[in-house]
Amino acid sequence: MLTVAFPARAFDTNCYVVATGPGEECLVVDPGVGIEDTLRDVLEQHRLRPAAVLLTHGHLDHVYSVTPVCGSDTAAYIHADDRYRLTDLLAQTNPGLVAMFEQQFGARATWTDPTDVVEITDGTRLSLAGLDVDVLHAPGHTEGSVMFGLGGIPDGVSGQVDVDRTMVSGDVVFAGSIGRTDLPGGSHEAMQRSLRDVVLPLPDTTLVLPGHGPATTMAHERRTNPYLKDLPA
């Protein structure tokens, strides 16, 4: 499975490009702030064509470039509970955060609603770009936060770590941490349930590709992540 990861220009949000191989259709996951040029280079280098954009949740740092990436003929997939966040995104974003963003880039923030949005729910299996993607609803960071499960692992990973599947976890779980729950739409209680009922049952052989920071494995997180180790029953 061809997998390319690179950080956005703001907030160090990971954008992922996943395909069965070079010269094929691909999935773009979480196109954040200022990723267009790097994404274009990745697509050209590997001769890839976006078939869909997958969004782990609707925060600005994960979706800001969704409309230019999708254009007029590629759909964006987001959980139904976060669908509202793609309508007039900037009006829903903390003004201080928008001001910080504009100061960093020296330009006014702009937003155009994507034209083709597909709402997904827990348990949905998507068949896109030759890949089967399982949707796991894991609210807590936002109401509609999801993780995307893939049956394969990135090329070059085999033999380095003991993994046989991949989970793109968004801001649900990171290496050594979890997503914050104090933003609008967040819930500590919902996050605890998601960690207990959705994250912990994942096999140790799961490679975790988070929304921020380095990749990890469920085996490692089960042993070392304090938010999982101290999770109440």
Computed structural class: alpha/beta
Q: In CATH, what is the homologous superfamily?
A: Ribonuclease Z/Hydroxyacylglutathione hydrolase-like
**Helical percent range?**
10-25%
Q: Runs with pLDDT <50, length 5+? A: none
Q: Using the alpha-carbon principal axes, give the shape.
A: globular
Order of helices and strands: EEEHEHHEHHEEEEEEEHEEHH
Please give the number of β-strands: 14
Largest sheet: 6 strands, mixed
How much strand content do the residues show? 25-35%
CATH topology: Metallo-beta-lactamase, Chain A
> Measured on Cα atoms, how large is the radius of gyration?
17 Å
CATH class descriptor: Alpha Beta
| H/I helix tally | 8
Number of domains: 1
Average pLDDT across residues?
93
User: What topology, given as strand order, has the largest sheet?
Assistant: 1-2-3-4-5-6
Q: What is the level-2 CATH architecture name?
A: 4-Layer Sandwich
Describe the protein's architecture and organization.
The protein is α/β, with parallel strands linked by helices and 233 residues long. Helix content is 25%, strand content 28%. The protein is built from eight helices and 14 strands. It has helices at residues 36-46, 60-63, 66-70, 89-92, 95-105, 188-199, 218-224, 226-229; strands at 2-7, 14-19, 25-29, 49-54, 75-79, 117-120, 125-128, 131-137, 146-150, 165-170, 173-174, 177-178, 206-210, 216-217. A hairpin with a 2-residue loop joins strand 7 (125-128) and strand 8. It is globular, with a radius of gyration of 17 Å. The model has no long low-confidence stretch (mean pLDDT 93).
